[in-house]
Design a protein that fits this description.
With 787 residues, this protein is mainly alpha-helical. 72% of the residues lie in helices and 0% in strands. 37% of the residues are buried. tRNA nucleus export receptor which facilitates tRNA translocation across the nuclear pore complex.
Length: 787
């Protein structure tokens, strides 16, 4: 092989390269001494180092050297091998380094691996660290100048190198600076796509996605350096900020990369350092907030700038002197007044988050904030919305500005008189615009996809968002005028529901607004409820019924027995629809049955049992017995029993058992003749007691090793105790004769069960009943052994 290479490397380049490639393939499994010797190594490096060497031969020689470098061996032998190779002659020639980048990075990676395994101890008067430091300048040169080396390999090597550091020395700090600059260069966008990224068209989105993927490992590496050497990183960021501010030729891509790194720096700063602004952080944040950076008109730069401001809000929280700078950043052309709609909406969302974090400290600036937002609010109520206006994220629909305003106005530090004036100033134009659009829609009709629907939707969302700053105490006691204004706004919103009940997008937004009004108006909302509930009940699709029941559940939770009369009116309509929708055949099983329609029915079923549970536990079981509701009782009990015995959702089964327990307590007495509901006692004894409390737990699907199933089992045992206390001997006689004895339970265990049931130790009863059930299961398998 050696002779072939010597004879033919100048005569037949192809043959010599093929010989070297063949040799490379054998290196991994032959004795390393056969190739790492005085015959092969000088020849290989002669081919690499010779200025007139043909590229094909040089590449083949590099492949062989890499194979030798990557040969598996014990670390000390590997270090000796690495020192024996004349790689330093390659490092001495920058022009050659560029031609063999894989040799440079491969050698450095192997040296680093030895450092990781051996540490930094002396090995034969030398250390692998010295070899690494000799290679690093060439590695950095390759990183900057060569486009051949794969980015992933370089990042992996650099990450491993950073991990080996503990406290960086001065020379290592210089190396970290090179790595930081490499990261900055690599995360810069291609200027060719600048306009695409600004308007975010298809090409821009693709470029964003690709860069997001490219940046992942690079930014992880950056964060590692931030944690290892915060002073080095902060100084690097400071220089980038100074360069961006001082250079008239700073590009969009460079400024965006600078803010991206600054943002990531914020992720690594601990709470104490963030609060005090340790190191250069205070200067960096001050530069960020007080300076007018170039390129902020570009969507991409503006977005990352605002995110960075938000990232350092906790510093501002403990340094309130910077609040005016923060407000300026959010409220001027850098933020909410930015010409790009995406930036403006995002700024509104981030401003809302900032208000939630610092609302008490923002109150002194309330007048200034409201003045700064006045034109934005005016534009919101005068715009004719179209789908283009709504292309932002769902969480950034423009209403967040109103939420921020509401949160600030609702602070106790603001006087009730000012609160009332502020609310009126924002509610009045919103309601006026709503009425204008509604009148026009009534006259000309309303299509679900029309701009008018979008306009009404935005106004309702703004009203909803504004209300989030107020609670019932403020709106009904401290400043009743606010409650009156919101009640009037609710009446006007309900006009939309009355006029156009079938437009689902409006119906959903109105329902959400009603939820908020229930919270802040309290009992004063009662006069509006009949209209609300009647209109919402006009639709009977499963999803609509879910939304309706969620609202009713809120009313029950908040007002308890005060809604009894309202429930008696609406319960027949609810029961009629749900009994039909949730029939036994409503839930097909088998392949292909997990459809959207079936999932909606399952959600409706869950909400129904939550509704019945709330009624039972808020002393509203009398509603079931009202003259106009009683006819639905039997069908509902059958649905409840079926769910309690066999529903796949164990927690829902637990809910149904709890409903039965509460109804037993409410409707049954120790004396049979005084029961409120004729036939209910028999139903519980003959159906619920045996089917749910015995047969369902005997089934092998009832898994005692499951935590949720154990919770259900505890409720089933408790239900037996309740039945014994309320139904007495009627229950125990039937349960023993038709249940336990039918399951062939031995007489002595039946007697023990009765004794445990009479005692007041529910834990002992639960433990015994679990043992009884497990033994009955074994008996069914023919292997019962009682002890």
């Amino acid at each position: 092989m050696v002779r072939c290479c010597v004879l033919y490397h100048s005569l037949d380049t192809f043959l010599a390269a093929a010989a070297l490639d063949t040799m490379r393939r054998y290196v991994t499994w032959i004795d390393i001494a056969l190739v790492a010797n005085d015959a092969f190594v000088p020849l290989l490096f002669e081919l690499i180092l010779a200025p007139d060497s043909i590229e094909q031969l040089r590449a083949a020689a590099v492949g062989c050297v890499l194979a030798i470098l990557q040969k598996r061996m014990v670390p000390r032998q590997k270090v000796a091998l690495l020192r024996s190779l004349p790689v330093s002659r390659v490092f001495a020639d920058p022009n050659l380094v560029i031609k063999v980048p894989y040799l440079v990075t491969g050698y450095a990676a192997e040296v680093l691996e030895c450092c990781k395994k051996l540490g930094f101890t002396d090995i034969d008067s030398s250390t692998p660290v010295e070899l690494l430091e000799e290679a690093l300048p060439s590695v950095f040169y390759v990183m900057q100048e060569s486009e051949e080396v794969e980015l992933g390999n370089v990042v992996e090597f650099l990450s491993d190198y950073v991990i080996t550091m503990r406290t960086p020395l001065q020379k290592q700090a210089v190396y970290l600076g090179h790595i930081l600059e490499f990261i900055r260069v690599q995360i810069c966008y291609d200027p060719a796509h600048r306009n695409n990224l600004d308007i975010l068209d298809r090409i821009g989105r693709e470029e964003e996605d690709q860069m997001g993927e490219r940046r992942k490992d690079l930014l992880v590496l950056f964060c590692s350096i931030c944690r290892l050497a915060p002073d080095v990183t902060q100084l690097f960021i400071q220089n980038l900020l100074i360069r961006a501010l001082s250079s008239s030729e700073a590009s969009v891509e460079e400024v965006e990369a600078t803010f991206t790194l600054f943002y990531r720096l914020g992720e690594t700063v601990n709470e104490e350092a963030m609060r005090t602004g340790s190191g250069l952080l205070r200067e960096l944040v001050q530069m960020l907030l007080s300076s007018q950076f170039p390129c902020l008109s570009h969507r991409m730069v503006a977005l990352i700038y605002l995110e960075t401001v938000m990232r350092f809000m906790k510093f501002v929280q403990d340094n309130p002197q910077y609040i005016p700078y923060v407000l300026a950043a959010f409220l001027d052309q850098r933020g909410i007044h930015h010409p790009n709609l995406n930036v403006s909406r995002r700024a509104g969302y981030l401003f809302m988050r900032a208000v939630k974090l610092m609302k008490s400290k923002f109150v002194p600036y309330l007048d200034m904030i409201l003045r700064g937002l006045q034109d934005t609010i005016t534009q919101f109520t005068t715009s004719d919305w179209c789908s283009k206006n709504l292309e932002c994220s769902v969480s950034e629909d423009g209403s967040q500005i109103f939420e921020a305003i509401g949160l600030l106005i609702g602070m106790e530090d603001v006087s009730p008189e000012k609160q009332s004036d502020y609310v009126a100033a924002f509610l009045r134009p919103l309601c006026q615009k709503l009425n204008e659009v509604l009148l026009d829609s009534k006259a000309q009709g309303l299509e679900e996809s029309s701009a008018k629907v979008l306009t009404l939707q935005q106004i309702i969302m703004a009203l909803n968002a504004l209300s989030k700053g107020f609670n019932a105490r403020l709106a009904t006691s401290i400043c009743p005028a606010i409650g009156i204004m919101f009640k009037q706004a609710l009446s006007e919103v309900l006009e939309i529901l009355i006029a156009f009940p079938n437009i689902k997008i409006l119906r959903n937004k109105i329902t959400s607004f009603i939820h908020r009004m229930v919270d802040i108006l309290g009992g004063s909302i009662f006069p509006c409820l009949p209209v609300v509930l009647k209109q919402l009940l006009m639709e009977s699709e499963p999803k609509d019924m879910v939304d309706f029941l969620v609202l009713v559940n809120q009313l029950i939770s908040k007002f308890s027995t005060s809604v009894e009369g309202i429930l008696e009116e609406i319960f027949p309509a609810i029961a009629t629809r749900l009994i039909v929708i949730l029939s036994k055949d409503a839930f097909p099983s088998g392949p292909g049955c997990n459809t959207e329609e079936v999932r909606e029915l399952q959600e409706l079923q869950r909400i129904l049992y939550t509704f019945l549970h709330l009624m039972a536990n808020h002393n509203l079981s009398s509603v079931f017995l009202a003259p106009n509701c009683r006819g639905y009782l039997d069908a509902l009990m059958q649905l409840l029993l079926l769910a309690a015995c066999s529903h796949k959702d164990v927690l829902l089964r637990k809910l149904c058992v709890q409903i039965f327990m509460k109804l037993i307590k409410d409707w049954c007495t120790n004396c049979n003749v005084d029961d409120k509901v004729p036939g209910f006692r028999s139903f519980i004894i003959e159906k619920f007691a045996t089917d749910c409390c015995l047969y369902s737990v005997l089934d092998k699907s009832f898994e005692f090793h499951d935590a949720n199933t154990l919770l259900l089992f505890g409720e089933i045992v408790l239900a037996q105790k309740v039945m014994y206390e309320k139904l007495g001997s009627d229950f125990i006689i039937h349960f023993v004769s038709k249940g336990l004895q039918a399951a062939r339970c031995p007489h002595e265990l039946t007697e023990q069960y009765y004794q445990k049931l009479q005692a007041n130790d529910i834990k002992a009863l639960k433990s015994f009943y679990q043992l009884l059930v497990e033994n009955l299961r074994q008996q069914q398998n023919g292997s019962l052994v009682f002890r």
